[in-house]
Structure formats: structure tokens, C-alpha cells
Input
Amino acid sequence: MGNTRSGALSKEILEELKLNTKFTETEIVQWYENFKRQCPTGRITKEEFESIYSRFFPDSDAQTYAQHVFRSFDTNDDGTLDFKEYIINGYITKSEVREICMANFKLIPKDELSQLHDDENTAEKRADKLWKFFDKGENGEARHLAEGEFIQGVLDNEVALRLIQYQPSK
Output
């Protein structure tokens, strides 16, 4: 997959991903660079995936989800996902982001709601603010994102991560 010596994404893989996803060449290349930073070997193991996913969704069953992802997308059955397998992992929509924010917003005690910023004091406002980190479609509105891109984007941005996690006030 790709040119292993330079770490560059091969033209064949790039063209295939442009054809089979809704991402632009620039988006694919940027995402590949992020993937290589997180996974310098060019592959992600189930354990690494679980670790990243559990940081993103700390109260979830990361092990079960990782098993599902690897069963579904590890097309060559080698126990790892390469960039191509990872990028076609699935999509997340704005309504799914809103659902995530609503579920997490319910964890915030009522007495702490008044301490939230005006643009974060409802689940809907949090979802809208989070989605803006990923604006890239027509009229500044992406219809969907690859799940891996969403996870990576949130992990790379502390503000975005805070919008989907509840941290009890000290």
C-alpha cells in the first residue's frame, strides 16, 4: 500500500479512494498524513484502534466495536487495517453527531449547565459547533464524514473533544 520507502500514498490507491469515496484528493492526502502520524507503520492494529476509540468514547465497549470494525473492514484478514481499509470504514452524519452530543449532554448535572458557554449550553449548539470543525461541503456544510476522519479530527482538537465528553467540574 503506497510507497513504503517515502511513506507517500500511491497514485493507484489515491485514484481508487477518490473514485469510491466523496473525498477530494487534498482531503485524502491530508487524512493519510494524519493516519501516518498516528500509525507510522501504515497499519493500525485492533488494539491501537481500541485505544483511540476508547479515548474518543470512554464509556463505550471499544473492544466489541473494534471486533465489529475489523470483522467488517479488514478485507485481507491480517489483523490490521491499512489506510484504504481505514478510510472506507464508514461515515458519520450531522444527525449522528447530534445524537452523540445529546447522549453526552444528558450526563451534565443541571447545576453545571449554567456554567457552560452560550454556544455550548444545549446539545444542539454543541453539535453545531462540533460539526463546524469539519465544514467542507457546499455552503460550508458537509453531508457526512468518514468515521475515522471524525474520530481523528476530534482527537486532534481539544475543543472538539471537550464538546463530546463530560468532564465533571472540580
